[in-house]
Amino acid sequence: MESLTQAFGQATFPSPLKVSFQTENFIEDGKDRVLVDISLEGLLKASRPNSGHILFQPSTFELAGPREKIFWNPDSLKVAIVTCGGLAPGLNNVVQNLVTFLSDRYRVKHIYGVPYGYQGFTHDPLTKRFAFGWRRLDSLSVQNIDFEGGSVLGTGRGHSNPISIVDALMLRDINILFTIGGDGTLAGANAIHQEIKRRKVPISLIGIPKTIDNDVLWVSKTFGFESAVGKAVEALRCAQTEARSAYHGIGLVKIMGRNSGSLTATAAVAMNDIDFVLVPEVPLRLEGQNGLLNAIVRKVLDKGYITIAVAEGAGQDLFPPSEIEKDASGNEKLKDIGKYLQKLITDEFKARNIETTLKYIDPSYMLRSQTTSADDSVFCAKLGQNAVHAAMAGKTGCMIGYAHERFTHVPLSAVSMGKKRLDVNEPLWLSVLAATGQPSYWG
Amino acid sequence: MESLTQAFGQATFPSPLKVSFQTENFIEDGKDRVLVDISLEGLLKASRPNSGHILFQPSTFELAGPREKIFWNPDSLKVAIVTCGGLAPGLNNVVQNLVTFLSDRYRVKHIYGVPYGYQGFTHDPLTKRFAFGWRRLDSLSVQNIDFEGGSVLGTGRGHSNPISIVDALMLRDINILFTIGGDGTLAGANAIHQEIKRRKVPISLIGIPKTIDNDVLWVSKTFGFESAVGKAVEALRCAQTEARSAYHGIGLVKIMGRNSGSLTATAAVAMNDIDFVLVPEVPLRLEGQNGLLNAIVRKVLDKGYITIAVAEGAGQDLFPPSEIEKDASGNEKLKDIGKYLQKLITDEFKARNIETTLKYIDPSYMLRSQTTSADDSVFCAKLGQNAVHAAMAGKTGCMIGYAHERFTHVPLSAVSMGKKRLDVNEPLWLSVLAATGQPSYWG
Amino acid sequence: MESLTQAFGQATFPSPLKVSFQTENFIEDGKDRVLVDISLEGLLKASRPNSGHILFQPSTFELAGPREKIFWNPDSLKVAIVTCGGLAPGLNNVVQNLVTFLSDRYRVKHIYGVPYGYQGFTHDPLTKRFAFGWRRLDSLSVQNIDFEGGSVLGTGRGHSNPISIVDALMLRDINILFTIGGDGTLAGANAIHQEIKRRKVPISLIGIPKTIDNDVLWVSKTFGFESAVGKAVEALRCAQTEARSAYHGIGLVKIMGRNSGSLTATAAVAMNDIDFVLVPEVPLRLEGQNGLLNAIVRKVLDKGYITIAVAEGAGQDLFPPSEIEKDASGNEKLKDIGKYLQKLITDEFKARNIETTLKYIDPSYMLRSQTTSADDSVFCAKLGQNAVHAAMAGKTGCMIGYAHERFTHVPLSAVSMGKKRLDVNEPLWLSVLAATGQPSYWG
Amino acid sequence: MESLTQAFGQATFPSPLKVSFQTENFIEDGKDRVLVDISLEGLLKASRPNSGHILFQPSTFELAGPREKIFWNPDSLKVAIVTCGGLAPGLNNVVQNLVTFLSDRYRVKHIYGVPYGYQGFTHDPLTKRFAFGWRRLDSLSVQNIDFEGGSVLGTGRGHSNPISIVDALMLRDINILFTIGGDGTLAGANAIHQEIKRRKVPISLIGIPKTIDNDVLWVSKTFGFESAVGKAVEALRCAQTEARSAYHGIGLVKIMGRNSGSLTATAAVAMNDIDFVLVPEVPLRLEGQNGLLNAIVRKVLDKGYITIAVAEGAGQDLFPPSEIEKDASGNEKLKDIGKYLQKLITDEFKARNIETTLKYIDPSYMLRSQTTSADDSVFCAKLGQNAVHAAMAGKTGCMIGYAHERFTHVPLSAVSMGKKRLDVNEPLWLSVLAATGQPSYWG
Fold it and tell me: Which residues in chain D have their CB less than 8 angstroms from residue C238's CB?
């Protein structure tokens, strides 16, 4: 784990938490680590002769939490917080917890909110004027921001320019930067961290993973995910209600998830009586005896009504490559699989001369712009607290990870190893197969 | 008010409610009537010499409620309930209240649910076989149906054939039919009622108005409307959150309402800080100095973000007539004004070279397939109770109306006089103008 | 209707709303009035020879709404807002609407929040120092206060001293005072208004009725009532669930309502399957063949489980007068009828040797400290808007009333005529009797 | 892990899940185990020479999930389900998932619900008559039971008589019994399991842990806990609102938790701005410089208002032993710490002559009788599925555990080792200390 203590000397300040904490409550860096793979099989593999070292790296992570000695002197500390990318329920909770923790527990006096994501660092190197005003934050100004969805700081998708951003941090004398964002943001954060190291300046950079799709590596859940599941369930229930209330009714819901069907699958398991769950990880085949369309017709005739949950990233290979467009950032624009299925299914029933009523619901941004469930609030509080503990202890270049019910420090370099997807051999997908009775592959 | 007592003799059975009610609580037909127009101006007009009779008809409606004597002997009574048209929150509550009231208070033993709307009467006149099974209903079978959205009976849009339906009612010895539906359904109910009268058979037909758009005449509110407003507010809040969290953010929400902007306007008033409300009743002009697009650009630049609520029926005249399609029933298919505005606004900002982020939300069926708010539950309970009181007293050919906080009996013939729309001179729309600051007309 | 125009000259400033409103949308004082009693019977009585004048006064109220000419020049206007008494959902919505309307529509620049109710006017007449700081309010500072329950201004029960309060208003150059509160507060407001008149100073005082119990005269509903009903229904549903899940289960819920059973009755009607509803308006008799205890035992044995809703003010005469205590303000402290019934019922079953499980729920302040339902938000918006219209037009000494779906101006003197209670001959209570099957009186 | 295969021969029936699952998805008994302690420290300790065997037992649990071969032939199988003890959100979801899984996936045809807990097994050994009718369950009869709180089977606290219960199971030819309940119920289940073993009859008994207090060993979370947290947060928010809206306001909420402060602590962490969290695990001292009362007064004066969350089991040692009563089952009745604190705090402020307003909320059963959050629904689904997989594979005498995000099989004998409590050295309590700033001990 990278730490400013490696280059700039020991953490020597006693933690202000000592007043209320007893000594044994603090985490010890060397000692407190947790396994990445907790299966017996993984363990046996790791502990074979000549592979013992694998046991420690990368197969354990440093445990997050308060340290007895801290690196920074709170009095003169300057902290910046930035939220990047799309919305997720809980952004404000995380910001609120960062701010109240820094100010109420660690007595930090200078905290700034950077507006509209990495764009907020934009400045003219000559005049040193910033394009957007930074906002001063304290306990009072964030008191009720958890009652609102979105990000009170403003967020944005703009690309990061590490050199310009480190310039901005130095111009403003920032000691700690918290970046809240998804895998793109965290890759950007890693680049900023490398630039900070290159310049040999003492700035802690701590990432906090945010992804409504739950597709960041090394974190088993992300804030806002559960709240999004709640709203997806609501949309599914509405579609199910429409289907049940009509003769040969079909309810179809499109749910967020470009690369991962995690949200769609979880929402479907939360419900009773969902019939088809379509995710990017399982190729979609429509035609033929064992294709989706035939399965749908059969089930409608057999059961009277059905409900379908489709992740927005599902079935993208059904569209001819010529139709693929790219957005400004070069990402492929997804084709609308929901509308596409709506038309295909309706046409199929018409062709077979079977009466049906299909209702299509696309809750889209309603999943991500709401406030948090109680459980998500707890998760955001812990994330924020652990990020503050990490930064105050001088940790840097890491993200607050979560796995096996433990918060950890995950090197930012490990985060960019890839994107987490739904594993079709794992319990969640098996629960979906078991709950729906649908086949494990189509066609 | 039409009543079976006119043709078939007096209501002679004492109401079973006498056990718990005291005598003075019952409504007296001749005496208890309420004014249609409660303004002083309307009253003075009505009470001018030689116009006194206008005062009574049609400017008062009979008050709904329990009568001391009832027309039907509950013991042998057979009752049918049918739900028609699209879903609205509260359908199950109304059915539940009809059933528990009939069975627990009036001791009616034979109650049937007719499935899938008027389709449920379909039968073969020769074999007397019905296409769909009717469902026996009692207090236990409807105990928790208010926990679900939709209609447990099933609903459908099929046209009514009065002759066939009255045949079906007679085949099944039905004495009372409750039809729950919108203006189309109620027009159908009137035709059935005329056929019943023509045949001189003692069958009570009571309509219960259902319209998520709140566009039925003589009812100031309809069941499910408030619940739908609640969900529309949720969608608006999400759009507002997206807009506030982005630089030059725009949130756009499309809300149900083919002919009436009532739902859209009410939801907008429930919110703070909505900027534009677009309804079918106010012609939409996009171009020019005083057009919508210019107003939007100005407000985004001035305020930083905006939120727009658009009723699905708004701005339909913007589409070339050649593009208009009709559905199976001959109704014009609405063009998607939401998607259209999304494109127009985005293009306008691009043309003016102003950065913006527009998020479009279409909550569609989520507004109508949910369960009821507490207040809607109360309203459904009272509607159901008053419908049962009316039927048991021998009333027929009427709908349960609601105006000025009173439930009334409204002749079905009066219902088909027209469709209620939003009055742009009335308080609701003035509240919208005052809350948004938008002009009273475009262009 | 009292108006500052009577003493200080005509309303001559054109309404700033003219920009968006068209002329015909404005209310005309003489012309637009609505009937207090809308029944035909009431009307006939009022229009009998020699009683025609009764028709106009007091049987009509002036219609609330925007006037074309306003009395005040917005530029220099100073406005104060005070919230008094206990909490109700929507206090913040009303404050928010007052502020945004005053500032965004009428361009008023100086708006102050008075803290902790009438206490907030406390000042030293010599030093002119105020005990509590007043808070400056504008559109931005109230932007999200509707996301919180309670009152951001703070509220309090302190008595009003009209002389000191008018002194305070004059010290601070206040032109308009909005007081939001219940019947005590409004009586206080009337005393302040009389003192203002006595001093012949041009200050508009507009009251906004607030009562979670719905017991203010001339208003058919009050803000927060529906939201409170929603939470009461939740508590009832929990009690019902506990009852249904246990052998011979009894669920008992105590609901707010010192003098009026309106909240309890409304919540009970919203539910299916409530068995007993106990309110202050119907004397409670426990013992004997037709007493409550016997009815409870019979229904538990017959049906298997029951749910009871009791208003906190019900059955107070069951307690010996010697036990009555008074609080600081001289009001009688209510005895806890919920706990009392819990013990009595448990003992009764024990005495009869019948197994039972009784679960008691007292949601208390949870009914009043929450945020608003969508419908309540709409109501608060309209209340706030109409209060601002009234004040700007120079109206004074009045409360914004609501009856028969119209907002009105009700003289404060008429408000103190009495307290509204549940009328046991009215539809609401009849719905309760019909829904529960309980007798109209006990014993 | 105990399994019927040990005594009655191999699991030879192919799993009906093979149709939709692919072979590699099934769990292998010997291979798939997970660590109980996932810290590196624990691991090193376990893998020291001569202690290697500890690694496998008890420090790993068998992984739950579907097996490729099953023990039971579904055709003739008879299954019983019983819910015991107090309510928890999700009881119906678990029952629903057991039933739909058994019937839709494993094609089990005979499933019975045993009413009112272990009482439902009561029968006359001579006449073989059962005191309560068992209810036949299938997919349709449980379709919407997750829309209701409580247990549709009925639940009860009655003691278990293992001999009589095994008699009942054999009389009814039951092959699998699912018991859903807390530690008492699971201890009872273990006794039943021992009796089954003694009789050498092939009956699978699978326990499903239920505890709103989250105090069962080997399960890091229990169903309904998150939903209860959600409601506790609501109560805390109401109390906080009351406190903020009053001068020197104090909000006090009592939250379920006889032995564990887990629910109280979690709810407090979900909130911003809670001041005191009182749990059974931390002794309460009221008096003195470092006592609670002094801390409360200081914070009210300093901050203006405070919010206190107290677990019902906190501070029980403050009551004189003479006051302790026992209930029918011999458990000590908790004294009402909420009411007690309310009086003490009010008196303290009175004694110090400081104005205050204290509002006390006891949401009690509202925490446990509601329906589930989406996340709890997912958890219930997985619990139910894994219980069915375990039973069908012939597992017995075990409970479905959950730790480190994995479902496991935990021997019932291990469950009765003790009761889980809040560890004041663990992250959750440290989060509470950090969030509130309260000291780690009182006095």
Answer: 149, 365-366, 369-370
Three-state DSSP at A226 gives helix
Mean pLDDT of chain D: 91
| Of B61, B63, B59, B1, residue with least CA distance to B32 | B63
Q: What DSSP string describes B368-432?
A: TSS---HHHHHHHHHHHHHHHHHHHTTB-SEEEEEETTEEEEEEHHHHTT-B----TTSHHHHHH
* Spatial contact of C153 and C83, defined as CB atoms under 8 Å apart: yes
Contact status of C75 with chain A (Cβ, < 8 Å): no
How far is it, in rounded angstroms, from Cα C90 to Cα C224? Answer: 5
Q: Is B42 left (phi over 0), alpha (psi -120 to 50) or beta?
A: alpha
* Domains of chain B by residue range: 6-27+64-222+372-403, 225-369+425-436
Domains B6-27+64-222+372-403 and B225-369+425-436 share a fold: yes
H-run or E-run covering D297: helix D292-303
The topology under which CATH files domain A225-369+425-436 is: Rossmann fold (3.40.50)
CATH topology of domain A6-27+64-222+372-403: Rossmann fold (3.40.50)
Nearest CA in chain A to C144: A148
Write the residue in B25, B66, B146 that is nearest to C272 by C-beta: B146
**What is the DSSP code string of A166-198?**
HHHHHHTT-SEEEEEE-HHHHHHHHHHHHHHHH
- Using alpha carbons, select from D441, D88, D147, D114 the residue that is nearest to residue D290: D441
Q: For testing the chain B interface, which of D144, D145, D151, D371 should be mutated: the one with the most B CBs within 10 Å?
A: D144
Confidence of residue B265 (pLDDT cuts 50, 70, 90): very high
Q: Which residue of C has its CA nearest to A146?
A: C147
B–D CB contacts, 8 A cutoff, strictly below: 8
Picking from A375, A364, A398, A368, the residue whose alpha carbon sits closest to that of residue A151 is: A368
Give the CB-side neighbour count of residue C196, counting CA atoms within 13 A: 28
Name the helix (H) or strand (E) containing D135.
strand D135-136
**Per-residue pLDDT, C54:** 37
Which class for B16: exposed (0-12), middle (13-18), buried (19 or more C-beta within 10 A)? middle
Say whether B29 is catalytic. Answer: no
Half-sphere exposure of C102 (CA within 13 A, CB side): 36
In angstroms, the CA A166 to CA B285 distance is 48
pLDDT along chain A (443 residues), means of 10: 88 85 77 73 55 47 92 95 96 97 95 97 96 96 95 89 97 98 93 97 97 88 95 97 97 95 96 96 94 97 97 92 68 87 97 97 96 96 96 96 92 87 87 90 89
Chain A residue whose CA is closest to C148 = A147
Report the C-alpha gap between C139 and C142 in whole angstroms.
Answer: 5
Which residue stretches of A200-291 are H helix?
A: 225-245, 262-270
State the Cα–Cα distance between residues C208 and B66, nearest whole angstrom.
35
User: Which ipTM did the prediction report?
Assistant: 0.93
- Give which of D437, D395, D391, D439 is closest to D102, Cα–Cα: D391
Calculate the CA dihedral of residues B299, B304, B309, B312 and round it to 10 degrees. 80
Tell me how far apart the alpha carbons of residues B156 and A120 are, in angstroms, rounded to a whole number. 54
What does the pLDDT look like over D419-443, one tens digit per residue?
888 888 888 998 999 889 899 889 8
- Beta-bridge partners for D362: C362
CA distance D109 to D98: 13
